[in-house]
Specification:
The complex is a heterodimer of chains A (252) and B (313). Chain A is mainly α. Chain A has one domain (3-213, 222-246): Ferritin, core subunit, four-helix bundle (Ferritin). Chain A is built from ten helices and no strands. In chain B, 41% of the residues are buried. Chain B has 313 residues and is an all-alpha fold. Chain B has a two-stranded antiparallel sheet with strand order 1-2. In chain B, strand 1 (249-251) and strand 2 (256-258) form a beta hairpin. In chain B, 68% of the residues lie in helices and 2% in strands. Classes of the chains: A mainly alpha (252), B mainly alpha (313). Chains A and B meet through helix 1, helix 2, helix 3, helix 6 and helix 7 of A and helix 3, helix 4, helix 7, helix 12 and helix 13 of B.
């Protein structure tokens, strides 16, 4: 792979990750338990779609074949999508969404704090904006972790089940393959392995406040970097891409 | 002061264009009228999130998706301002939501029409928000302070939405033949229901009498409707779409358009629950509310625990 191809692939991974999570958060619209939360979740969706656009536009530039953010977002199948598995998990109940987002938000804040030092100016710029947003997202999700974990018996149970379910998808966020290693070595990308301890301490502290426990099962699922996903992603893309694909010549 | 004197003072203040504020004396009927109108307005914003929310997961471009989500989020924000304005009249949001679910409170009937293609995202912004603005601009001068101030804020965002909607439908009208067909179809389906948004003709409008006297309502249904028609026809022509009204004609003398007649049977049928989406809209709201009950309970329980901890410290 050329340096250009490596960077392109890296942009797709992060662009897809935020696009897919934005889509999930968009699905909450009109489904929140209270109007304020509908607004908060749409806000988060908007942040993620903004970040995704930045990555995909840059990816298209790097690739140099004239593909736009929309070509990349709407005209690739699930086997060519490289989002982190955790982001495609269906919303489930509110606890499931909060558990998923919390695990990712804690990662994202650490990740972007590192990426802000990237020698690639565009990536550093994306990171600086994303840090602010990730801080807010993490605040939102960790506050809910604690409220639900230490709320009622029912919410405690739901929150614990949600954490147990999402846990096996967290390892995927820290995986490093040759592409990641290459960019980390070049000072462009982030060495995610190195984020794991700090991430774990965020998780441990918040779960403690939330009176919740860390799951014992440590088997971690993988696949996203090769375009292997849960079945949920195909359904999401079928819906997301339906209109754009039905009228490929149309401009909206 | 006797009730009569209070009422006279109240009317004098209204006539002098002074705003009525929450803690001041007001006739019970004024308060009730406002609760009904403001809550209906709030519910309309919130239920109005659904027909547009219906297309968030299928928006055809990243930009389109972002704009649509931002718009739906604005509607939620308008709902919040309006619920707050309504709460100043001595009713709480739980009661208002309950009234929505039981059908006691209404919302704008336009949202009982389904959104069936992407051009509908344009038509809703252009026509539905466009009609709403005509009404809301007028309401910026309404006599109740919190409502008038809420309207000022809301109008700014609504006129932005209207331009966004027009941008969507204009792009489609200039696009491929299928896009143009969708744009015309959206206009065909939303034109008459948009005109219905202004309510019955003045001669048949049961709530207008006091509302005009109290300056809650500043202009009549028919005046507002005509204003909307006059400003919208040219916008349709400009992008090559045809307004579905065979009687539409410029009236040189009146400097205004003559137009056909609204199908009032349809209007009353839809208001009374027989639109394609009535049941779905309320059911969806109720479902989200009911499914979230455990979350609200947990948040409350957590807050109580925190308070108790503070007391112990």
């Amino acid at each position: 792979m050329t340096a250009q191809e490596i960077l392109f692939q890296y942009c797709l991974r992060m662009g897809d990750t935020h696009n897919v999570l934005a889509h999930r958060m968009g699905e909450w619209c009109t489904n929140g338990h209270i109007l304020e939360e509908d607004i908060a979740m749409t806000n988060i969706a908007l942040d993620h779609i903004g970040t995704s656009r930045a990555w995909l536009i840059y990816g298209g530039d790097v690739e140099g074949k004239g593909r736009t953010e929309d070509d990349l977002a709407f005209h690739r199948d699930e086997r060519s999508y490289f989002n982190m598995l955790i982001t495609e998990l269906p919303n489930g109940n509110f606890a499931d969404t909060i558990a998923r987002n919390f695990m990712f938000d804690a990662f994202a804040l650490l990740y972007y704090s590192e990426l802000a030092n990237s020698s690639d100016e565009t990536l550093a710029g994306i990171a600086q904006k994303a840090i602010k947003e990730a801080k807010y997202h993490l605040k939102h999700s960790s506050n809910w972790m604690v409220r639900l974990g230490d709320g009622t018996e029912e919410s405690h149970q739901k929150m614990q089940i949600a954490i147990n379910e999402v846990w096996r998808f967290t390892g995927n966020m820290f995986e490093m393959d040759d592409i990641d290693q290459n960019l980390a070595d070049a000072g462009i990308g982030v060495d995610c392995e190195k984020l794991k301890d700090a991430w774990m301490s965020t998780i441990v502290n918040t779960l403690k406040d939330a009176t919740l426990t860390i799951p014992e099962n440590n088997y971690m699922l993988t696949g996203s970097k090769k375009g292997v996903h849960t079945e949920a992603l195909g359904h999401m893309l079928a819906e997301m891409q339906s209109l754009a694909r039905a009228y490929p010549d149309a401009k909206w | 002061m006797t009730e009569e004197q209070l009422e006279k003072n109240f009317q004098d203040r209204i006539d002098a264009e002074q705003k009525i504020e929450p803690r001041e004396w007001m006739p019970e009927k004024y308060r009730k009228h406002l609760i009904r109108q403001i809550s209906q307005h709030a519910h309309s914003e919130v239920i109005g999130m659904q027909p547009e929310g219906n297309w968030i997961t299928r928006a055809p471009s990243m930009r389109a998706k972002m704009v649509l989500m931002a718009k739906v989020q604005d509607e939620a924000g308008h709902g919040l301002y309006l619920y707050s304005a309504c709460e100043t009249l001595g009713i709480n949001r739980d009661e208002l939501v309950e009234q929505l679910h039981t059908g006691k409170a209404k919302y704008a009937s336009i949202f009982n029409y389904p959104t069936l293609n992407w051009a509908d995202m344009g038509a809703v912004g252009w026509l539905v928000d466009g009609a709403a603005i005509v009404n809301q601009v007028s309401l910026q001068r309404t006599s109740y302070g919190p409502y008038a101030r809420g309207m000022v804020k809301i109008c700014k965002e609504e006129s932005f939405h209207q331009r966004q909607g027009y941008e969507i439908i204009a792009a489609m009208a200039k696009g491929t033949p299928q896009q143009k067909e969708m744009a015309q179809d959206a206009l065909n389906r939303f034109w008459w229901p948009s005109l219905m948004m202004f309510g019955p003709h003045d001669s048949d409008s049961p709530n207008s009498g006091n509302a005009i006297k109290w300056k809650i309502k500043r202009e009549s249904n028919d005046v507002l409707r005509q204003r909307f028609i006059d400003k919208t026809i040219q916008q349709a022509e400009l992008i090559g779409l045809t307004v579905p009204d065979e009687d539409l004609k410029w009236n040189e003398e009146r400097q205004s358009y003559d137009w056909g007649e609204i199908d009032w049977d349809e209007f009353y049928e839809v208001i009374n629950g027989n639109g394609l989406a009535n049941r779905q809209r309320v059911a969806q709201h109720k479902k989200a509310h009911d499914q979230g009950a455990w979350v609200r309970e947990a948040a409350k329980a957590y807050a109580v625990k925190q308070k108790n901890k503070e007391v112990l410290v």
